[in-house]
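Shall we go through a protein fold together, starting from nothing but its sequence? Label the sequence line and the structure token line clearly, so we can match residues to local backbone shapes. Would you write everything just below, so we can both look at the same thing?
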Amino acid sequence: MQIDLMNKHLLDTCRVSGDYLDFRVFDGRVFAHLANQAQAFRRMAYGISTVDGLAQPTEHDRTTNRTFLYRKGQFAFQPDKLSDNLRHIKGDSHKIFYGALPEILTELPDTTFSFVVMDLVQYVPTKHALEYVWRRMAYGGTIYVGNYNPVDKSASTKAILEFIDEHGDDIILSRQMTINGNKQKEIAIKCLRQELKPLNWSKKDMLTRPISMALVLKTGGEVYNYKYVNNLVDGIKENLTIDHEIVCLTDDPKGLSKSIDRVVKFRHNYPKWWGKIELFRPDIFEDRQVFYFDLDTFIVGNLDEIVFYDGEFCALRDFYHLHSMGSGVMSWHGERVYRLYEDFKSNSNTGMSRFSGVGDQGWIEMYKPSPSDYFQDIFPNQIVSYKAHCIKANNTVNLPKNAKVICFHGKPRPHEINNVLKRYWKQS
């Protein structure tokens, strides 16, 4: 298991209350890291060791070519390595339970978990473990899974796919990336059971300030023009009943929809997406709640619930790496966002050079107010990715049932698609 990648997801849960759980201690390398973080954040890390290793595999563990990838007794507990890995961990922030999994689950303390590591390999223990933790996961907690192979769909992957199918409306998933020709084995499952949602964003009395819907058009590129602005404006107008204004920050107002309430000129000539930084200028929105959308966005459902958000700063989780921020949809208010603009204005060349690979979202992520929120945590499965969520394994395209906003990133561009979602591109 890649500890560096796991740690990014672990740190992402630092604001979520709850303890940590490692379902297979093995040599203690991963568990020692959990124990260390538990000590730092004043939590407990619990570990499970089945001592004798894997159980006898079942028919669910056969691969598509009818073989077993793992044998009985494999990954047996290694106490010497565990002691070595834990030697630097002081205090009582960790505890290990030894024995068969079903019995151990009855011995674990009655607690809530914010982060769970699950690398159980086989179908039956994975299924039991998922059933156990689902009832105990804190809202926003993460189940970090190893050995996930959706191509073969056997063993632990079979149990995980069944879990995803059953709880799909209350979870969001990271996506496996291909690195140096090899696909990652791990995925993160963020648990967002609606009955545990800490804040009720659907109450209209939560609206405490006027709302601005913000768009940015920087002309001169090969793709985006006034048609993209107007398409998004139409989508907002059709799907938002709450009083609002639409503001477009641009260098050229030609062709823009008359439904736009305010057109604001750029003050600087920052290239490409860097013009987005001017959204945080103190003179544009003052004491308003701002909701920003990238132009390559379709509005496909009612936005009223989403614009009830009244926090200081909210952005997307990257659709592939849930621990990273995406700037395609954002909301903010308050003076603390002004620093995003003021510091960039003073160090624009340095900022653009430092974040040349990730662009504006790298700068925004570094300077955004903390703590901040993520849209997918508050409104699960309502803001989705065209590539990650609409395109299915057989290359068909469907609109996810709870989707309100579809974000495009890379190709195809919204005006290029020719499928069921084409109806949301209304510009000739």
Summary: The mean pLDDT is 89. The CA atoms of residues 91 and 411 lie 51 Å apart.
